[in-house]
Predict the 3D structure of the following.
Amino acid sequence: MIRLQNIEKVYRTDTVETLALNKVSLDIAKGEFLSIMGPSGCGKSTLLNIMGLLDEPSKGEIKIDNQQTINLNDKQLAQFRNKKIGFIFQSYHLINDLQVLDNVELPLLYRDSTAKERKQLATEALAKVGLSNRVKHFPSQLSGGQKQRVAIARAIVGRPEIILADEPTGNLDSAMGNEIMDILLQLNRDEGTTIVMVTHDEQMAQKTHRLVRLFDGSQVQ
Amino acid sequence: MLKNYFKIAIAVLRRHKFFTFISLFGISFTLTILLVLTAFIDKVVGDNYPDKKRDRSLYVSRLSEEGKGTMSSGMVSFYFLDHYVRSLKTPTDIAISSVFSGTNTYVNDKKIAVNYKYTNAAYWDIMEYDFVEGKAFDKQAVANAEKVAVISEDMKAEYFGDVPSVVGKYIEADNVKYRVIGVVKNVPITSYMTYSDIYLPYTVAKDGNFKDKGYRGGYYGILLAASKSDLSKMHNEYEQMVQKLPMEAKQYNKMYSHADPYIASYVDTGNENQSGVVLVLTILSVFVVIFMLLPTLNLVNINITRIMERSSEIGVRKAFGASSKTLVYQFIVENIILTLLGGLIGLVLSFIVIQVINSMNLIANLELSINFMVLFIGLLVCLVFGLLSGVYPAWRMSKLNVVTALKAQ
C-alpha cells in the first residue's frame, strides 16, 4: 500500500545540515497496522509527514497504492491526500471556530459533495466514534479524548484507505488513550484501513501488527 | 462550501471583536466620509436649481489688471457687463446680478437678517426659478426703477409668517419698502450666484453704482449661448473683447477676465497660471485615495497578523485536501464578507450623518442627499480593496508549509 524507498531527509540551515532520515525503506501492506517508535527527534514524525505527502523527502521515492507521488504538483497532492489519506494529530488540530459536525465535514468540502451528503457522512463518522450527542458542540466544550475522537471522525469521514496517526494518544491519560486505540484497532479490523501510528507508548505499539523503530533517522528494527 | 466559509468568517469576526471593530470602523468610516463629502460636492456643484441652462452658459465674475509690481483684481461691474459684454454677438442674453449683501430688518421688533441682491430682467428669463406665487419683474419694471421684490419662500415665512399669499404686500429692507411681486423656492447659499432672500431690480440700488463706468464692481454675468456648440465661440469672442479693452490706468499692461463654464468659475482661484478645476480635482483625488488606502493597509496588516493565529487551521485544511488556490479563495471570501459588512454600516452611518447635517441647518437651504452612484462606486471600491487586502495575506497564508503550519500552535 505504501512503499518508501531510500528516503532521506536533510534539514539545512545556513551553517548546519541535519540528516533527519537516512535511507529509510519501508513496505506497508494493505490492511496493515504499523507502529513507529523511537526517541524524540529520531525522525518519526518526519517519516510520517513524508508518507502523508505533507513534506517532501530530499531523496528517495514514495509510492502509494502503486502510484508514484514525487512529481505531483500542489493541487494534485491536495487531491491525492484528500482521497487516500486521513490524518490524526497529537494535538487534535480541530478548528475551534467550527462546530463538531463542521469540523468532521471538512475533508468533504474539498471534493464533489452536496451539503446533504456531507452532513450524512459526518453524522455516520461521529456515530462510529461514539459522539453522536456532541454534534453541535464546539471543540472547546469537549474533553481531550472527545476531541481526539472528533479528529478520528474527521480522518475517516472521507473513507480513506490509509490513516496516519501522529501520537494520537500522546496527550491523553491511559483510559482515554485505550479508548482511542480501540477505535483505531476496530477501524483496522472491520474496515481494513491501513494505519501507520507514531507512538511513544510501548503498550500501544504492542497492540499493532508490526513495530518499526527509528534511531537517529535510521531504521533499527 | 460558501456556507461553510460564511460560518467560519462570522466565527472569526466574532472571536476577534477588537480586530473586527477596527476593520469595520475603518471601512465604514471611510465610506461615510466619502458619501458625505460627495453629497456636499454633488449639492454644491451638481445642484442646478435655478441655473438649469448650465450646459450652454458661461460665467463671468472676475477681472484683473496687472502691471509691473502692481495688480488689481475683483468682481466685474454692472457697466462692464451691460456695456462691453452686451456688445458680444454670440450670447443670446446676459443675466446680470449683484453679489448678495446683508442687512437687517425688523418685524414686530424682531430683528431679521436679510440677504438681498440686484438683478436685471434677463436674469429671470435665463434662470428658471420655481415660483410659488406671483412672477418676476420685467424690463419695464426695471426701466421704471419700480420698488418691487421677489422673495424666497423662507423669507416669506420669516417676514410674513404663515399666510397663504404675500403678493402685493410690502417688505422693508434697508429702510426702503418694496412691493412683493413673486415668491420663489429657496436656493442653497452654496449656489452663491443665485442665492438670496430678496431679489430687487438693479435700478433701485441706492448707491447707484450700476452707473459707475469702472470695470470692477460687485456683479456676476451669466452669458447664455443659443446652443452648447456655441460655447467655445462665445468664450473666444469674450477673450478677444477683453484683449481690446483699454487699460484703466497707465501702470497696467495686462488684463485678464474669462467667461468660463460653471465648474471652472466655481473653483476660480483668481490665479491666472493655475486652473482651479485641476487643483480642486487633484486635491479631491488625493484625499479620496488616501482615505481609501488607510483602511486597506489596515486590513492587510490585520490579515497578516492573523496568519500565525490561523496556521493550524491552514495546516489542517491543507492536510485534508485544500489546495493553495482553494485557501486563497476562502480568505478572499472572508474579506469580502467583512468589507460588505463595513459597507453596510458605512451606508447607515452616512444616512445618519446626512440627516444630522440637514437637521442642524448649518448651511442655509442646503438639503444633502446620498448620491447612489457614489454609493455604488464606494461599495465597488471597498470590494476591490477588500480583494486586494485579502489576496496578499491569503497568498502568503496558502504558501505556508503544512508541517510548519501545524507545528506553530
Notes: The interface with chain B takes residues 49, 52, 54-55, 74-75, 78-79, 81-83, 86-87, 89, 91, 93-95, 97-98, 102, 105-107, 109-111, 115, 154, 158 of chain A (CB under 8 Å). The radius of gyration of chain A is 17 Å. Chain A has a mean pLDDT of 91.
